[in-house]
Specification:
Elements: H1 15-19, H2 36-57, H3 68-88, H4 92-112, H5 144-166, H6 177-211, H7 216-247
Amino acid sequence: MLGHNLPLSYFLSDKAFADSAFLGIPALGKCGDIHVDTLATAWVCMAGILAGAGLVTSSMTAEGAGGKGQAVIESIYSFVEDLCKGQMGHHYKKFFPLISAIFLFVLTANFIGIGPWKALESFSWWPVLHNGHPAEVASPTTDFNVTFGLALVSLLVYVGSGFWAMGPGYLKLYLNPIEWMDLIIRPATLALRLMMVITADELMRAAALLMVPVLLPTGVMAFEMFIGIIQAFVFALLTSIYIGLTVSHSHDH
C-alpha cells in the first residue's frame, strides 16, 4: 500500500510455495508476494457495500419519503444515473450497474483507509515485515494491483462496448497505431491517478500525525474524505466517457 504490504509469505512455512511463480507465470511475481492486507480490506469494502444495501433495501418503501438510508441510496442512484446518462445517452442502462459498482467500491475503498490505524502498530501482536517495518492498514486504492485491476475492467468494457456498438467493423479502428497507444495510456492514467492521489493523502495524514497528533489530523481526515469522493467520481466519470465514446456510434435507437 504505502510500501509496507503484508505478503502471504508472512503466514507461510512452505518456502517452496512462497517462492513459486504466481499462476505458473514468473512475470506475475511469487505466490508469497500476494498482498493479504489489500485482499482483506477490499473484501471488507465489498462486504460492507452488500451489507449496507441489504439493510436498507429491506426497509425501503415506494410510498412516502422513506428513511435516511433510503434517501442516501436514492441520492447515490440519481447521482450515478445522471453521470451515466450524460455520457452514454439512452444506452446508459446497459452500463449503469458497472459504473455504480465502480463508484461505490472506489468510494468505500478510499474511505476505509481514513482512520487512526497507525495506532495498531504499537501493539506487540501486530505483524512486522522482514524489513523491520510494521505492516500498514491503508486504503486498497493505494495498491497498484487494485487500481490497475479496476482500470483493466474499464478497458475491457470500453473495448467490448465498441464491438457491441459497431460490430466486427470496430477492428478497423485499431489499424491506426495511435489507437493502440490509447489502449495503454487510458488504463495507465486511470490506475496511476487514483493510486497516487490516495497515497499522497495517506502520506499527508501520516505526516500530520507526527507533527500535531491531536487536532490537525481531524482536518486532514475530513480533507481526505473530500478527495476520496472526488476520486471515486473521476474514476466513474472517465470510465463513462470512454464507454460513451464508443456507444455513441451505435445505430441502435
